[in-house]
Amino acid sequence: MASSGSYVQVALVLLAVQLVCVGAAEADQETGTVIPAESRPCVDCHAFEFMQRALQDLKKTAFNLDARTETLVLRAERRALCDCMPTTTLR
Question: How much is the pTM?
Answer without folding.
Answer: 0.39
